[in-house]
Amino acid sequence: MWLIVGLGNPGDTYARTRHNIGFRIVTELAHRHHLEFTHKRANAQVAEGVIAGQRVALALPQTFMNLSGQAVVGLRQWYKIDPATELLVVYDDVDLPFGALRLRERGSAGTHNGMRSIITLLGSQVFPRLRVGIDRPPPTWDLAGYVLGRFTPEQEAQLPEVIERAADALELALREGIVVAMNRINAPPPKPDRAKKRAHDDTEPSSDNTHTAESS
User: Which CATH superfamily is domain 2-191 in?
Assistant: First the structure.
């Protein structure tokens, strides 16, 4: 059985903040498979069912971010899972560009207080996680204020596609395993074919007749 936990803060106030993208992705996964968060266990809302042939419990901790570990440990005990092979945590990461996805089998908490709580209470950092990039704040910004703020209008417009890709990644991990999913999700985008690029370049107008648009 897999326990998939989306990190975030409960309540409408935080629903559309950067810190709650984990909630939104796991909720999307539940909606795709017609699973409802009808269970309340270990300070979490839980939806149970089957995805890609795997029994799953999808969880949204209601403990607030800094205490996420309490819910995860409680759910681990309830479902009797092995975190190293049956736990997958989805969360926001300021160290990745907006919309980037990284799937890992283990790792540190970085600057993320929710992950720090989970690692501390589990007593291990060996468990899979899907990191979702939200970009770094400008140097003068407070980090806590940034993650508890909302996405820019431009980012909000792109969020549905980011959430879709992240839900796809979770389905892939369930269907084909973490290692296969890592190799596909974390792979750099393919480089353009050089011959095609040369052919494209040959058809471009000369620089004397082109103009560069100013970026706003």
Answer: Peptidyl-tRNA hydrolase (3.40.50.1470)
- The label of the residue with tokens 């939104």 reads 24
Q: Say if residue 152 is exposed, middle or buried (CB neighbours under 10 Å; 0-12, 13-18, 19+).
A: exposed
* Contact between 134 and 92 (Cβ < 8 Å): yes
Check 19, 34, 200, 211 and give the catalytic one: 19
pTM of the model: 0.85
Any catalytic annotation for residue 112?
A: no
For residues 199-212, one letter each, b for 16 or more C-beta atoms within 10 angstroms of the residue's C-beta and e for the rest, the string is eeeeeeeeeeeeee
Domain residue ranges in the chain: 2-191
pLDDT in tens, 185-210: 997 755 555 444 444 444 444 434 33
Evaluate whether 11 touches 150 at the Cβ level (below 8 Å).
no
